[in-house]
Amino acid sequence: MTPRSPGDVRNRLDFWQALSGACLALFICVHLVLEGSVVLSPSITNGIGWLLEVTYAAQIAAPLIVLLILFHFWIAARKMPFRAGELQIFVVHSKALREPDTWLWLVQVFTAVIILAGAFFHVYTVMTDMPITVAGSARRLHSGWLLFHAVFLPSIILHTGIGIYRLAVKFGVCRKSSRDRWRRAVWIGMGCYLALGVCALTRVWFIGC
Amino acid sequence: MGRKLTFEIFRYTPLDPASTPHMQQYTLEEHPSMTLFIALNQIREMHDATLQFDFCCRAGICGSCGMVINGRPGLACHTQTRDLQDHITLHPLPVFKLLGDLSVDTGTWFRNVGTKIESWIHTNKEFDPEAQEERMDNALANRIFELDRCVECGCCVAACGTARMREDFIGATAINRLARFYIDPRDNRTPADYYDLIGDDNGVFGCMGLLACDNVCPKQIPLQDQLGIMRRMSTLESVRGILPEFLRKKLQGCGHIEA
Amino acid sequence: MQTFYCDVLCMGAGLAGERVAVEAAQAGFKVICLSIVPPRRSHSSAAQGGMQAALGNSIMGEGDCPEIHFKDTVKGSDWGCDQEVARLFATTAPIAMREMAWMGVPWNRVVAGEHTYYKGGKPFQATEKAENEGLIHSRAFGGTAKWRTCYTSDGTGHAVLFTLDNRMLQLGVEVHDRMQAEALVHDGGHCLGCVARNLRTGELTGYFARATLIATGGFGRIYRATTNAVICDGGGQITALDTGIVPLGNMEAVQFHPTGTVPTDILVTEGCRGDGGTLLDVNEYRFMPDYEPEKAELASRDVVSRRMTEHMRKGFGVKSPYGEHLWLDIRHLGEQHITTNLREVYDICTHFLGVDPIRQLIPVRPTQHYSMGGVRVNKDGHAYGLEGLFAAGEAACWDMHGFNRLGGNSLAETVVAGRIVGKKIVEFLQGKDAGSFTARHMNAAAGAVRERIDALRRGTGEDCYALRNAMQDVMMEYVGIFRNGKDLQTGVNKLQEILERCKNMSLKGGGRPGPDGELAMALRVPGMVRLALCVAYGALMRTESRGAHAREDYPERNDKDWLTRTLAYWKEGDTLPTLKYEPATPFFILPPGDRGYGGGKIIPGESIVEDKLLPFGQDA
Q1: Which chains are within 8 Å of B by 3+ CB pairs?
Q2: Omega before C263 cis (within 30°)?
Q3: Does the interface ipTM go beyond 0.90?
Q4: How far apart, in Å, are the Cα atoms of C386 and each of B121, C20, C353?
Q5: pLDDT tens across C262-294, in order?
Q6: In whole angstroms, what is the distance from residue B224 CA to residue B220 CA?
Q7: Contacts with B161 from chain A: Cβ below 8 Å
Q8: What is the DSSP letter of C110?
Q9: How do residues C155-185 score in pLDDT, each as one tens digit?
Q10: Contacting residues of C for B64, CB less than 8 Å apart
Q11: For strand B72-75 and strand C374-376, is the pairing parallel, antiparallel, or unpaired?
Q12: CB B197 within 8 A of CB B118
């Protein structure tokens, strides 16, 4: 056996997948909270938008996030059932096994594809429609983007929530003894974020009336 | 008068040119304390002598009789029919090479993987028949045995989504085996050595955390926890030169202390 | 026919087979192991309790030494053992255990300080010494003066087997699993290998070897109620018996374990009683102290099994749809102890019986467990009659167990005998030229096996399962724990008749290509019936009671006429074995006396002449 060099790039992919995933999860959590501020008052959201714009944080971060998403997808895709028959095998396997965690992985795969496409459009429209304001969002919602958000938002939340849980499981942070607590916490967390997102969307929708 | 049980069993012998894959039905009357071991032997002795399956200890200790019972991998000998519906479907374990009907070749698979991960104590010490044994902490001995309890039935591999899609994946059982050596002070392998063995996508990085291995293990070995420990160790090895050394060392210690 | 060549061929890859293979491979010889199942599934893995070795690290084993271990073993054997071999075993056992620790067995270790232990169900305190902290610990087993059974929780066999198999991987020993040996290849004086049937493909395979080892375990499956695995059908003993030149020793010595569970016959370890479990009758009364005031539940297995049967015959058994049984009570040991030290027991009770041993009683009855008899070998493990044929472990009659083996002695025997016989095989090979193999004997042996398979395909009579069941019923009914001349004669007659019926055995499934479980069984059944006849006929002719062999019509142990070992030969075409006898031991270290448990009268033999009596530390 020839020892593997510790610097072998391919064997670092798992690390980069985890790290990029963790960064994206952190971003999503912050992003959704900031967006959610509209529930309290649209002016807070507008203020945050203004702040991010004048500091150029938004203009710099947005393309970086897109790149990070691409990077994360590109690495994680090596695990995806692209090869012939793999998806079918996995679906049959999941059906027979009746294991929730096995099903959740399929959810990860499908939401990943949705997010990849969705993130691009989302960032593109926001970036070409500066400045970032609640009114702008409302206008977009009424011009047909509501459906997009109705799919995109749950996908993001599911993917992030399951991703965090999976990360904790894979790295042994979530252990057999604490697994039930983790599951409950993640589902509650996802529920809260979804509720916040729905409230925010509703609020913005009615502002646009 | 017990229930009438219907068994739907996968039949196929690859070496028999006359055989084609199909499901075959058998009916039996249920008796108290009936296990699948008793049921399958009754079918073979009374209904169909050509049915192939593997049993050995019939006490849940040897791991011979892993099969897919109503969709889930498990040991047939300690599955009682009273815990099942009256329609029971049996398939051979996937991933492993099919020999005939419910019998699969786990032996070759496990030997290959055992050789691949060098499943033995690596030591430079010679055995000295005159000397007293080296001392060991009893709690540590118990922890090692806890991981050594794996019976290599193959259920965790059959339940693993990764193993189903990627045949080179070594599975939870192999990583658990290495975790056993990792905590054994008699084995002088370093994290770098373990990383050489399992630090890739066919090894510990192939695990997607689907947890089915953990849930189907008939010995209730905390497989996913061991995967976590080994993954952390391997990941930290993989980022040698990226993460500052002091941080790496600090993070690396944690696998040894807990568990 | 595919043919393999090797220096050492191990038939069987359980503990004994692997230990020999490791020894030979370490010496640089090419070894091939054959096994019906993948090696880690061997029945050795099911041994829960432990291995006896006089390490004397624990406080309850303090002062232990090989001599005390030796004496316990001889008493356990009811003076039926070879005392030279028993001494060799007792002195080597501690080394073998330490060697296994070096290889990686996670033996339980001594923890210094005060601990609560149980004896006869009563707790007591003992303080483990600080200077022994971390050394190999030991637990109590039946029939021993000291606590000397080394263990890893209750998976000792499993842990040692996996460790040895790891060592096999390391040494690169070839393992051919799913191979069933059908016949030895020999030229009338030398063993040349064997013919095996591949259970994957159904094809015959030839193995030429300079040394062949039989390590195929016991033959418990000749009984219906047995704790043995389904593969323990005596395959190795059958091949030896079929040569007509190699005798089987003491086949009538069959051990019944006191605590086989009802109805599945799965064993729960003697460790239950060693750790303080008690036996109760239908009134939940602890009866063993009435029979055995001193040792109670921890008398040797033959004694406890007989006392249990006796008590049930008096009407104190618990009636159940699966027959009468008694209770094993471990409730007082507590949840913590049961779910850690006796976890395998806990699993068996909950999974197979639906009983929670923390709160409920476990239904048990004596169940066939161990075959003291087997391929008769000398102290080097070399079989009588054929040069180059060796045997070790339960398959052999090495003979350290005599007419009853102690709990924890058989598991220890596997690695101790494996170590000793392995070294002797290495010596044997080093003293010999490479030698040449001629195909003539191989072809003859393979031809005979082929002819048997063809005969089965032509057969029109009963199928193998019906004949096997008939044999098992005879053994249960007439050759059980208590034996008498009338029943044994009936048993022999019935078995002879079954052997005759075997000649026209048929295959219900027709014998299809590929793995064929029915054919594998059909090839075994006639041999199993011959083994059964060796047991029944040997028991009929032995007109005394010794160890596990209990004759109601001859209740005394007869040292005058029967301080002997039975040797059973099978001449081709015969329907009964030819029995010969040899002295039980070449010399005495411990002259025949009272075991101290079990009761029973002894007909003393002539006093032993001085040159036959040796001190423990002196060679003959």
Answers
A1: A, C
A2: yes
A3: yes
A4: 38, 19, 46
A5: 888 998 888 888 888 999 999 999 999 999 998
A6: 11
A7: 90, 93-94, 102, 105
A8: -
A9: 999 999 999 999 999 999 999 999 999 999 9
A10: 37, 41
A11: unpaired
A12: yes
